[in-house]
Amino acid sequence: MPSGPSVGPQSGRGALTRRRLLQAGGGVAALGVAGAALKLPFFGAAGAQQDPLQCRASDVSSSAKELIVSNWPGYMDPPRKKTSTISVFEEQTGIEVSYTDDIGDNAEFYAKVRNQLGSCEPIDRDMIILTDWMAARMISLGWIQPLDKDRVPNLRANLIKPLQGVQWDPDLSYHAPWQSGLTGIAYNAAKVDEVGSFTELLTRSDLKGRVTLLSEMRDTMAFMLRVEGADPDDFTQDQWENSIENLRGVVASGQIRSFIGNDYMNDLAAGNIVACEAWSGDVIAVAAENPDIRFVVPEEGLSLWSDNMMVPNQAVHQENAEAWIDYYYQPEVAAKLAAWVNYICPVQGAQEAMEKVDPSLVDNTLIFPDEEMLATTFDFMPLDDRQSIDYERDWASVTGG
Amino acid sequence: MAETVRRRGRTGYLLIIPGALWLLVFFAFPFYSLIATSLYDPTGSDFRGYQMTYAFGNYVDVVEAYWQPLLRSLLYGAIATFFCLVLGYVLAYAIAFKSGRYKTLMLVLVIAPFLTSFLVRTLSWKLLLADDGFIVNTLQLLQVLGDDGRLLATPFAVVAGLTYNFLPFMVLPLFASLDKMDYRLIEASRDLYGNPVVSFFKVTWPLSLPGVVSGTLLTFIPAVGDFINAELLGNTNTRMIGNVVQSLFTDANDYPAAGALSVILMTMILAMVLVYVRRAGTEELL
Question: Which CATH number fits domain A181-304+382-399: 3.40.190.10, 1.10.10.60, 3.40.1080.10, 3.30.360.10?
């Protein structure tokens, strides 16, 4: 017989001491790790690239009259109203729209759907709306379904000229701009004199510590490259490095209060900052209540961008999504939407249609920009995946250090 | 006799199973995956995928690039913990010994902020410390701050935010320690001619050490890794390591670097905690 019983219950072989517990825990953990190591589930990760033609679901649009849309906040006229653009769409087509404004940041949304789309799983959305560079990335990753050209005639007929022929999808096979906007400068006229250029924003001493820049790399670096005299559409590694070092110096000097994604207009209106890099639509919305807040076309030019409707892989209501695109590319509908969201309307003919909706907006160049403004716009050149990581890393070392 | 011992032992292990499974699924696996990610080939990308190349160089690279925010995080965390300790001790002492019948109410008040979201609480500091706000204007009037001085977007605001947000984690363990203390011991030390200062340092403080240790740990660890306060209340030169990890992961999609930085942070904190607990007098305290 074993001699176990000779010890007291406190120190008994079977009793639970801390040491034994730790040993057991360690053993279990080691076992788990060993078990995992056999199949090596996280050892290396496959590329996330997919083939959209392989990775598609059968379309149930004709039987299931539904459409699931994810969009950015503030990008839709209030859907509850009977006359809202969504309600009219639902009435005309019989398609029930489930509309969510759950996209607040391109990179965050990418992180959210990366695992699913990267392994050809559905994300339970029929339409997502993302900014140019992210749209370009997702298209090149093969995560986006090609649109049926015959089902979106209005898109082909009515897209405004400046948005046609983008490098990453020149013939509109995959995307349709939802709204566009301009990146420029906003300032508070009650506090400071006009800020006419990006260089002033970075150097004027009366702005020190009261300036914010946008936290998306392409937004801000496009202007830094312009300041450097480079072309954001086509720049060299040297020009990039000079611009990054320039920005690093500006940050170290304390000129920039922060790099910010969405809240800058609150800070501007509250007087915490006096000038900032800003998106046109945000400024119009605030300027309507506070006339001291003004949008400026910087001397360096304007950056023109779009947020684009796309159908992700494995979406089951693609036809409904295409009906939606075609609907919003009617000038009357586009004008009604533009009157509410204040961004640049991508639809030709909406300016004329605006006469009936809200005549005061017809000549608003931040909704319907004129030739002169569009002459100064620039874009950020498409980056391949490696460039993008390197540049973002440089960017993080300046904004995050 | 032998039977009962053995059975009791077995019950013990059975009781551990849920906890152990939980740890396995929600700690061991993710941590293993984190370490694996931190050793991926740094030239990988979402397009090409990531090869496991045991790239220990990732660790060197991130330390070189981000030692400043790393140290800054430890510094801010330490300062915030210190202020939490000072403020929290006074508060916990008052609740434990001086609050009388308001004890429960005061405890509820300490916990009440938890009923609103962390984000909202931090955002409200933005309103409080705004450049045109009441506090800044008053301080300017009193000439404490210059005319263009500010509080928002300064290290002060970040540390203040951290202190505020983690104060309850300090107060509760301190209160638990102080509350179960036998007050007659303090009375005895007074009877033995200890003045208030002496009896505090000879009696109260040593007896409250378990609370101090767990309170400082519960405050320091989350404070170092926090990124919300630096994001909302800081400026470009007050970014903490949490901000860097976040931007490397979501914006740059540089998973190996983000992984390496996270492992470094965890290891550093773990090492510091172990040394601290050893020195502070070990297991009985916890």
Answer: 3.40.190.10
